[in-house]
Amino acid sequence: RAQEVVFSGIQPTGVPHLGNYFGALSQWVEMQNAPGTNRQLLYSVVGLHALTMPQDPKKLYEDRMNTLASILAVGVDPQKAILFFQEDVPQHAELAWILNCYSMMGRLKRMTTWKSKLAVKEGSQSSDIIDDSGLNLGLFTYPVLQAADVLLYRTTHVPVGEDQRQHLELARELAQKMNRVMKNDFFPLPTTIINPAKRILALKGSPPQKMSKSAPDPRSRILITDSAAEIHDKLRVSHTDSIDPESLPEDHIPSLDELSPNVANLYTILSCCTGEDVSTLIPRYYRRRYGYLKADVAAAVDAKIAPIRKEYERLRKPDGEMWLREVAEMGRERASAIATQNLAQIKKHLGI
Ligand code: ADP
Ligand code: NA
């Protein structure tokens, strides 16, 4: 089998934003285009994960297609990578069930994503007494399904954004545990490939959160299909800080860490778009009004995503939809072939 197996997933929550693009999708394309290794790539749109949030069926269907089109538009080649819908390969759910039986409640309760969903019970003094009665079980076991996605293909490398670090730690623990239970080194321990320099923050909000598809204000994120006008508008109203740049000392050029998070984020985005180091960029804009930086970030983002937007629009025409279905079917077949074989071995090792 391949020396390296790469798996990565994205939720079908609509068109990806710059955080998804720089944190994950651009890595997907880089890994695909890196020369010469014996590497199996699997990229998945994870619809089962999306069901942990309330969804409208018609919109979810559209979002799934939009997400697949976005992945193709950024440059993933369905000949080089196995590109598929997680929900088309039932072995993901079957392995998730198996892994659930080896996952401890206490461990899952400590996941920060779960904790962030919990409300402190009204009137309670202690944050230990929390109210989980209105949360669905899928949300609780979400990281186990994610571990199943990864382990099903005996994945060695997982390119994801910074926010997924803890989930991948759980996948490694489960791989070790299952290997002990099965008395077999079946699962390699998956390595996480994270570029922390590419964590993108929302354009609005304090304290600044990561850019996300679920934040209520749509102007807090730039989608990879936004028009030039939308990009400029969103950046124009983006948050910076209340410092007057023209009043800053001339003799000290700050590093990225010394800037306020919202301003640093603008430099990060610019650097991601142009490939220039932030240490080159900061002296160029430092002590100038933020409007200059914002205008150049907008232009750089537009230059970066204009070809993606164009390809996306082509794929979302009626002819494109046929191609999307073909891609999904091809991916389903190839992913299923591996998944079926691996799951059969796992079950044999478990005695079921
Ligand atoms: P979201 O968090 O917006 O719902 P997903 O959970 O589908 O998006 O994440 C898809 C990928 O994008 C994951 O690898 C995740 O780590 C990455 N990602 C999401 N948001 C950001 C961000 N703001 N900066 C960097 N990477 C991100
Ligand atoms: Na996420």
UniProtKB/TrEMBL annotation:
Protein name: tryptophan--tRNA ligase
Alphabetical UniProt keywords: Aminoacyl-tRNA synthetase, ATP-binding, Ligase, Nucleotide-binding, Protein biosynthesis
Pfam families the record matches: tRNA-synt_1b
Any one GO molecular-function label of the UniProt entry: tryptophan-tRNA ligase activity
Highest classification ranks of the organism: Eukaryota, Fungi, Dikarya, Basidiomycota, Agaricomycotina
InterPro entries per record: aa-tRNA-synth_I_CS (IPR001412), aa-tRNA-synth_Ic (IPR002305), Rossmann-like_a/b/a_fold (IPR014729), Trp-tRNA-ligase (IPR002306), Trp-tRNA_synthetase (IPR050203)
GO aspect biological process, one term: mitochondrial tryptophanyl-tRNA aminoacylation
Organism for this UniProt entry: Serendipita vermifera MAFF 305830
Similarity remark: Belongs to the class-I aminoacyl-tRNA synthetase family.
GO cellular component entries: mitochondrial matrix
